[in-house]
């Protein structure tokens, strides 16, 4: 899995009254072939934030990745997703039909959601022990695995609820968790994947600039 990093960076620049996306700024505009060497400030390229991170570099985070393959290459928006939780050394704990796995590789292209607010050092000190103790519970023995109702989601959500309980916070049910945390990220990831693959295939991707309407009042100008 050497090639499974977060992928090439994406950038966006404006030319020909369009938004043009590519992996790097070309020397000339792919639409009009005009030299891009001297460009106006409003045409300066901006980088597009990458929704994927190397999960093994994330501490105390919830991670999401396709069960098979990677987001950028194989994910089709409906593929099964696998989830896990990192300890403070980037080891990814996840529950499968073989019991709790402690992965040191394979989560290099994940969607990551931090589970600790900055400054919660007390909890961070205890994190690895909590996670290890939780994982050795009989509940997560291999024979208890059940694809629909006792799976990787049950494992991570139960752990997250244990943490919320120690913080005196309200519990989350599966729908709430999916709605609040998972869906917004997978939606963003899907858009990024579409863009990424189009650029990979054609070298660039073009959209109209929605900001060219008669002067937008406030905060306009984004596309
Ligand atoms: Zn142009």
Automatic annotation (TrEMBL):
Domain called MKRN2 opposite strand protein-like C-terminal: residue spans: 45-199
Protein name: MKRN2 opposite strand protein
PANTHER family: MKRN2 OPPOSITE STRAND PROTEIN (PTHR33963:SF2)
InterPro entries linked: MKRN2OS-like, MKRN2OS-like_C, MKRN2OS-like_N
Domain MKRN2 opposite strand protein-like N-terminal, first and last residues per copy: 8-36
């Amino acid at each position: 899995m050497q090639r499974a990093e977060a992928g090439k960076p994406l950038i966006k620049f404006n030319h020909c009254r369009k938004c043009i996306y590519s992996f790097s700024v070309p020397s000339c505009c792919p639409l009009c072939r005009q030299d891009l060497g001297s460009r106006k400030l409003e045409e300066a390229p901006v980088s597009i934030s990458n929704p994927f991170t190397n999960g093994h570099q994330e501490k105390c985070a919830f991670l999401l990745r396709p069960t098979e393959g990677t987001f950028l290459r194989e994910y089709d928006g409906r593929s099964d997703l696998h989830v896990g939780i990192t300890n403070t050394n980037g080891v990814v704990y996840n529950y499968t039909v073989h019991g709790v796995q402690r992965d040191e590789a394979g989560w290099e292209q994940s969607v990551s959601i931090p589970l600790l607010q900055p400054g919660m050092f007390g909890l961070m000190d205890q994190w690895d022990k909590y996670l290890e103790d939780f994982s050795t519970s009989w509940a997560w023995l291999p024979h208890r695995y059940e694809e629909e109702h006792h799976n990787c989601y049950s494992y991570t959500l139960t752990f997250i609820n244990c943490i919320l309980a120690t913080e005196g916070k309200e519990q989350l049910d599966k729908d709430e968790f999916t709605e609040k945390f998972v869906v917004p990220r997978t939606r963003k990831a899907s858009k990024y994947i579409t863009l990424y693959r189009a650029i990979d295939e054609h070298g660039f991707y073009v959209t109209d600039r929605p900001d060219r309407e008669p002067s937008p009042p406030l905060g306009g100008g984004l596309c």
